[in-house]
Specification:
heterodimer; A: alpha/beta; Rossmann fold; 10-stranded mixed sheet; 9 helices; 25% helix; B: alpha/beta; globular
Chain lengths: 303, 231
């Protein structure tokens, strides 16, 4: 689940990547939003970024001769298999070009189902999810196909059920149960400010993995001094909780706060932020804004 | 019980000394946690201890949170096979993931809901040999999801817990629950939560560290005892 920030729609960046990745990999997608016609959003999905292998082909041939044995196996593959595709299928990637829309054949295929939650009640949405997930039952065999559910702004005020807090909780519980017993994953974004504090906490506990996005104010001089590369950042991504399925061992990430950057205004990049040590006598440091410095290490967060 | 395999939590709860009779017999244990720090590991630990091979304890596990496979895999890593315990009638797993109580007054009909659940628990315990009655643990994971299943009818959930509380005196069994403190701390009148803490004989809280996350220490577990002696 992703907690939205009312000041900037950064959750949409995450949703776009999530949805595009699923379609490119041949997975089924169920998308739901408060818009009257959610299908219009599909036109904004990004296309996979050009593979880095395209650049590697420009290497000096003499240099390649000196490559160790393992790299020499490259010559046994056809040229057309070095562009991130094998047998016409895209390889798993987190890199998408936001300036290039996803090819039409991905969007027009039969694998996509769109549901508007503006006029639908929760029973209808639950039934659509159940029907969608019935295509990916979990069994002991191999996974033939998988599904992705993306529900945007679940408790938005446009929705008829937005005041029915217990019913929404019940839906999330039901969705979680269905997803758990299928080969699928669901992302639900919601604006926490529209929920009462108590119910917001209940939603947070419901999540297997809990994220939040936050906008960065323009021309924040204090942050500009604390963070290197501030001018390239559009927001922060916080990881509050990571799924612990079939284990009780918590996942301790190297960092729980990432900067959201749009590299060359086309690639979504998440970079770890290292928080400076905090004096324990000052109380809880978790979630507070302490001195930060951006890491020189760029890592893509697996989605 | 092997002293070397016990830990501070065992010592605090008296589980490091003897397993028979079950030290938590007749007690209500409430485990509270927060989003940042899950208290489910305490639940798993108590489940493992209750199913110790040196004891004859029986556990009734009421799961609103996770499927059986989740607990099975965790307990296997802790050295406890829930499948064989279930086959030996020492472990009864009630899968409540899809339980949804009907709205309004229908929730109190015998046909479904929390009343039926209580009836099922009582029937399970009654069917055990009388000698086992004193070594039964009822574990509920977790109470906030029970409220969701009851469509927010916290009164129904409280009634259910009161009925389960009677089992601790009727059969001398123990009741262990998990709930999320931070859900209720922001409420104006956290009646349900206060009543639950009042019911508890032992309160175990899992909290995040004041200094934030650490790779080797994941949180802290202060324990509070409350004991009422009626003479």
């Amino acid at each position: 689940m992703v907690m939205e920030d009312a000041e900037a729609p950064h959750h949409m960046l995450l949703l776009r990547n999530f949805m595009a990745q699923g379609l490119v990999l041949g997975q089924h997608l169920l998308y739901s939003s408060p818009a009257r016609d959610p299908r219009g959003f599909l036109g904004t999905l990004p296309s996979p970024a050009a593979s880095k292998d395209d650049k590697s082909r420009e290497r000096d041939p003499d240099q390649e001769k000196g490559l160790r044995i393992a790299w020499q196996y490259k010559k046994y593959f056809g040229e057309n298999q070095l562009d991130g595709q094998r047998d016409g299928k895209h390889e798993y990637s987190n890199e998408f070009d936001l300036r290039k829309p996803l090819e039409r054949h991905f969007i027009n295929g039969p694998r996509i189902d769109c549901v508007s939650i503006q006029d639908s009640d929760l029973s209808t949405l639950r039934d659509r999810c159940a029907t969608f997930l019935s295509q990916f039952p979990r069994n002991d065999g191999s996974i033939s196909c998988a599904g992705r559910i993306a529900i945007q702004s679940f408790c938005a005020p446009q929705c008829a059920y937005s005041n029915m807090e217990w019913d929404m909780l019940s839906f999330i519980r039901s969705l979680k149960s269905m997803v758990r017993s299928s080969n699928s994953v669901a992302i639900v974004t919601f604006p926490p400010s529209l929920l009462s504090p108590s119910f917001c906490k209940r939603w947070q506990h419901m999540a297997d993995t809990l994220l939040s996005v936050k906008a960065i104010q323009d021309e924040d001089k204090e942050l500009a001094q604390l963070l290197t590369g501030y001018q390239d950042m559009v927001g922060f991504l916080n990881v509050h909780k990571v799924a612990r399925i079939n284990t009780q061992v918590p996942v301790i990430l190297e960092a729980t706060t990432f900067s959201i950057k749009l590299q060359k205004r086309r690639y979504l990049v998440l970079e770890c932020l290292n928080q400076a040590p905090v004096d324990g006598s000052s109380g809880t440091s978790y979630g507070t804004s302490g001195g930060c410095s951006s890491s020189s290490k760029t890592g893509n967060l697996d989605f | 019980m092997n002293q070397r395999s016990s830990n501070l939590l065992d010592e605090a709860l008296g589980l490091d000394q003897v397993i028979e009779p079950w030290p938590l017999r007749g007690r209500v244990v409430a485990i509270e946690d927060q989003v940042e720090t899950s208290g489910s590991f305490v639940l798993h630990h108590l489940l493992k201890r209750s199913l110790s091979p040196n004891s004859s304890n029986v556990t009734i596990f009421i799961a609103f949170s996770q499927p059986f496979s989740h607990y099975d895999r965790i307990l296997r890593k802790l050295g406890c096979n829930l499948v064989s315990q279930r086959d030996n009638s020492r472990f009864f797993f009630f899968d409540m993931l899809k339980l949804q109580c009907p709205d309004g007054d229908e929730g109190i009909t015998p046909e479904g809901g929390l009343i039926a659940l209580y009836g099922k628990i009582h029937k399970t315990i009654s069917a055990l040999p009388e000698i086992s009655w004193k070594n039964v643990s009822i574990i509920i994971d977790d109470l906030s999801l029970m409220e969701v299943a009851a469509n927010g009818s916290s009164d129904y959930v409280l009634d259910f817990l009161h009925y389960c509380r009677t089992l601790t005196s009727e059969f001398d069994c123990s009741l262990i629950t998990l709930n999320h403190e931070d859900i209720y701390s922001s409420e104006d009148r956290p009646t349900f939560f206060i009543q639950m803490e009042y019911l508890a004989d032992i309160l175990i809280k899992a909290e995040p560290l004041a200094t934030g996350l650490a790779t080797d220490v994941h949180g802290q577990v202060p324990k509070c005892y409350s004991c009422f002696i009626v003479g």
